[in-house]
Structure formats: structure tokens, C-alpha cells
Amino acid sequence: MRKAKILRRAGAAAAISALALAAACSPEPAEPSGTDETAAPTVEDAKEFIARVEDWYRDFGEYSARIQWVNATYITYDTDWLSSRVAAEGTEMGVKFANEAKRFNDLDLPAEMRRKIEFIKLGLNLPAPEKPGAAKELADINTRMGSTYATGKIELDGETVARVDLEEMMGTVRDPDKLEEIWVKWREIPVAENDDGTTMKEDYARMAEIANEGARELGFEDVGAMWRARYDLPPAEFAAETDRLWEQVKPLYDQLHCHVRAKLNEQYGDDVVPLDEPIRADLLGNMWAQSWANIYDLVAPADADPGYDLTELLKSNGYDAKKMVETGEGFFSSLGFEPLPETFWARSQITKPRDREVVCHASAWDLDSQDDIRIKMCTKVNSDDFQTIHHELGHNYYQRAYKDQPPLFQNGANGGFHEAIGDMVALSITPDYLKQIGLLDEEPDASKDIGLLMAQALEKISFMPFGLLMDKWRWEVFDGELTPETYNDGWWRLREQYQGVRPPVARDAHYFDPGGKYHIPGNVSYTRYFIAHILQFQFHKAACEQAGWTGPLHRCSIYGSKEVGENFNAMLEMGASKPWPEALEAFTGTREMDGEAVVEYFAPLMEWLEEQNKDRTCGW
Ligand code: X8Z
Ligand code: ZN
Q: Which cysteines are joined by disulfide bonds (predicted)?
């Protein structure tokens, strides 16, 4: 079900490809146009087909999005039923159109039309085979996995604890036994039995089977290849490109890992944190060890503390969830973006409703492709969620900026762009900015830069290997390298290899630890976040240059820069109408993704870390 928010929920249906352009090589001999499906198709036929698909998108997209919204903000038997039904309908139509689009494979088409035809083929997140019943079975499985994840119950100290509270506890609790308990209980949900005795793990395996069959019918090797095909590159080249980017930032990750492990060893001792092993995944301040910002206090440089904690500042200044969102809006307004519509405030879910089940994982929605944009969060007053608010608003402003594009181009330049917009803005939450909005009295001086950079690295650099391995795992699932018996071993192999983390207790093959992360049962592809973590630094660097900033990148805030806002908006308005290198070039002047901006941003920290680590044994 999570997939059928066709072109609505941010990133859920990103569909980009330029293999299309490469494939459009053999012009068809001119034939009179007609309705005979066996005759060679003409450009006119393609135009008529595209118009039909776009009409359907306009109509069905809104209908589907409204059902999915109700389901996500009020999970019941009935809304699951509706969600599953509309998802199945969407998949059936999507598959039908994708198969029909193949007719035009060899036809020489203008670039824009060729791009649309390729999007029609790539548009489904999870295709089903055409045989009757397959789309419905797939939708039922996905609805169930999503709702199981969102509503799974966990008992702690005799009480049922909300999942968002458990997530928050991973950042604040410092007792390793307690952390282990929370971490382990969280991962009971994916192996707990559904009403009919099956588990999420079995559902996942069946999902992969059906969707792979669907992908093969459409001419892709498997679902993983289909996901990789959305980046205007052949799938194998895209995978190599992500590896190249990772190699650029890996030295920084390795140094950060080494330092963090040493500091955790000081905190918890050799038994809990041996110095030559991967780090225990429950000690890093986050349920998935994907962002380590919450253990800043444990690893902070001694003399460089910036002297403020954003969570504390928000709390002591009386911020509530709404004020946090208003502050995020204020940033975008300062760049020249129109304020959010009244309906945003009336219809968003900003805090967790107390009396019903909802999907708490944050998302941004565009219900009608016009102005009905919203966020759905279970906001807590803390720094993590302040970041996430900017992240989600980035999706909403992007959606609004490209609303005048034709339906098939109403999307990010690629999935990574969509995820990078709000994050790029959040990189401008500097001390100077916090002072300007009255949250901070005094800016810390340059001697505190290492502390500021450390906080940022714990948030961003720690994420990168996780951002990469999530889909590496899924690529192995979809290409058959992993089977249900090896799902969990494969997961921990990648977690260890890329992140250098290990589970707090042995995890045998019966567990399904990937299922403890929203995007796995939710089937949201994840390489987009890895790409976004590279792109946001490229955007930030370009934006700071446009704003005339000459100081260090981590002190640059583009707050208030109308010029940057205008340039940024020009890129956002393009939506998916052009291959992403053109969108990137429009804003940054380069057509390449490049980890250099990350390296430059963190250069002073890298130097400091190397000094700290010089007598330590790094690696795992
Ligand atoms: O899922 C999200 C957003 C919604 S698109 C809240 N993010 C990833 C995650 O939480 O795992 C943002 C960062 C990575
Ligand atoms: Zn996002």
C-alpha cells in the first residue's frame, strides 16, 4: 500500500531514467497513424497514450493519496482494507500502462516524450505480474507489513510504550542493559506472528517474489535493477557511482568510528566496547545506529564545546511542535518562498494523536498536486525532530514548486534530490542563525568549531554507510543472493562491513532485523538518502558561494538570502522534467555528484580526528 501514493508522497514514486534516451536509437519508418495496435506505433499514438496516462494520474493520484492519508493517520481494519484495495488498483493500472509503454520502445521520440514513456515503465515502486490476483496479494502483504511496523506493541517495565518513545529512549538512556533490552524488544515485532500465524519475514519474502515476477514481466532483471534504473544511468553504473561516492567519504567515517569507539570504551569499559571490534549497535544513540548525534556528550572534544544544546534551547524557550514547524516555515519564507497554505496547518498531523493508531514515521504529502501539502509527524521537542521538520518541509516546498509540471514530471530530479532539499536548508541552522531567531544569545567563537563539526558529523557522516547498505541488502534479496534463511546473516554482514557495528546479542537466522527499520516493511528505497547526504553538501556549498560567504562552510547560513532562494526555486521548479545532471548544473554549475563538498566541510574535524586517533588502532 505504501507505494500507491502515486506521485504524491515525497519520494515514494520517484521515477527517473535516461537509459531511455540511450535506447531511443532506431527511428521507425513513417507509417500512417491508426488505431491498429499491431501496426508500428507513431508519435501521435505515443502522445495520445501519454495524455491518457497523465489524465489517469491526475485523477487516481488524488483519490489514492486521500485514502492513504486517512489510513496513515488512522490505522484500523477498515482503513487498511481501503488502502490495500486502492493500492491494488493502482498497481494493476500501473502495470498495464508500463506494458503498453513497451510498444514505443523502438520509436524515435522527442526527448520529453521519451522521458515520460520511461517514467511510465519505471513508475511503480513494486510492480506485480499481470495475472489476476497478484496485485491484490501484493497490496495486502504490504498493507499488513506497514501496519505491523506502525502498531507493534512493546512492553517495558510492565507498561506498553509508544514506539516514538522507545526511539527517543535510545538517545537518552545510558545503561547498556536497558539499551539492549529496548533494542531487542523492538526487533521482536518483525518475527511476531500475524493473526494467521505468518510473520513479517514471511510476508517480506513473498512480497519480493511477487514484485520480482512483476519486474521481470516489465523487462527488468529484478526489482533492485528497476530501482537502480531511476537515476538516469544504467543500473550497474549507478551502483558503481554510489560506491565511488562512498569511497570519497569513507576515510572520514573511519576516523569518526575510531574516535567514537574509543570514547565509548572510556564510558562503558572493555567488556562492553572492546577496542578491536565493531561497535555495539545499541550504544550509538539511535535505534538503528544510523545517526549518532545523541551521544555527542560522550564523544565531545574537551575544550571545544559550543556551549549549547539545541534540544535544551528549544525546550527552555518554550517551543512546542507547532512553533518548531513555524520556525521551519520561517526559514523558507526568508529565502522568498510563499508561506505554507492555511490548509497545511489545518490538515497536517504534527503531533501524535493520543487515541488512535497512526504511522509515526515522518513523511510529507501532496494530496492534490496543487496546494494541499501536509506533513505527518509525531513531533517531539528535540533537535532530531527540528531537523526532521526542515527535512519534511523541503519535500513540501519541492512539491509545490513543481506543481505546474505535467503529472509525470511532478517529482524530484531524482530521489536523492527530494531528500536533500530540506536537509540542505537545515545545514544553515548555525549558531549565527539561532542567534538571529532569538534562540541563542551569543555565538560560540572559532575555538568551538571542532565541537560544532563533531555534532554535525555525528548526524551526517555516521549516516552514510547505513544509507548505502540498506539497499545493498535489498539488492541482494531481489537478485536472489539472499534467501529468507540468510536474510538476517546478510544484514549483519553488511552492517559490520559498512558501519562497523554489531548486534548486542547473537542474532540467529530466525530473526528479521531489517524489518525493524520502517523503510523495509514500507518498501521505501533508501539509496535516495545516501545520495541526499552527498547532494545536500554540494547544494550548501553552492548556496554559500551564491550568498557571497567566504568563511568556513559549517558557519555559513543562507538564512534570508533571496538570491539563493530564487536560484534554488529554479531548480525545484524543474521537477523531474530533465535528467538530474541538468538540475544539478542549474544550481551548482556541475553535472557530477561529488563527495568533495563533504570532505571540505569536515576538513578541520578530519585533521583533529587523525590527531586524536594517531596512537589508536582503528578499524574492525
Ligand atoms: O525517512 C526519512 C524521512 C522521511 S523521507 C523522515 N529519513 C530517513 C530515515 O529516517 O531513516 C530521513 C533521513 C533518513
Ligand atoms: Zn524524506
A: 360-378, 544-556
According to the model, what pLDDT value does residue 39 have? Answer: 79
Q: Is the CB of 460 under 6 A from ligand 1?
A: no
pTM: 0.94
**What's the 526 CA to ligand 1 centre distance in angstroms?**
9
Express each pLDDT in 26-36 by its tens digit. 333 333 344 45
Q: Label residue 37 by pLDDT band (50, 70, 90).
A: low
Q: How far apart are CA 336 and CA 472, in angstroms?
A: 39
pLDDT digits (tens, 9 = 90+) for 224-255: 999 999 999 988 999 999 999 999 999 999 99
Tell me whether residue 395 is annotated as binding.
yes
Distance, in Å, from the CA atom of 190 to the CA atom of 152, rounded to the nearest integer, reads 9
User: Is 528 known as a binding-site position?
Assistant: yes
DSSP category for residue 501: E
Handedness of CA 496, 498, 500, 504 (dihedral sign): negative
Query: 3-class SS at 106?
Result: coil
CA 42 to chain CA centroid, Å, is 39
Which are the contacts of 19, defined by CB distance < 8 A and separation ≥ 6?
118, 229, 232, 233, 234
543 band by pLDDT with thresholds 50, 70 and 90:
very high
Pocket of ligand 1, candidates 5, 168, 360, 419: which has the most ligand atoms within 8 Å of its Cβ, to mutate?
A: 419
How would you class 611 by CB atoms within 10 Å of its CB: exposed for 0-12, middle for 13-18, buried for 19 or more?
A: exposed
Distance 222 CA to ligand 1 centre (A): 25
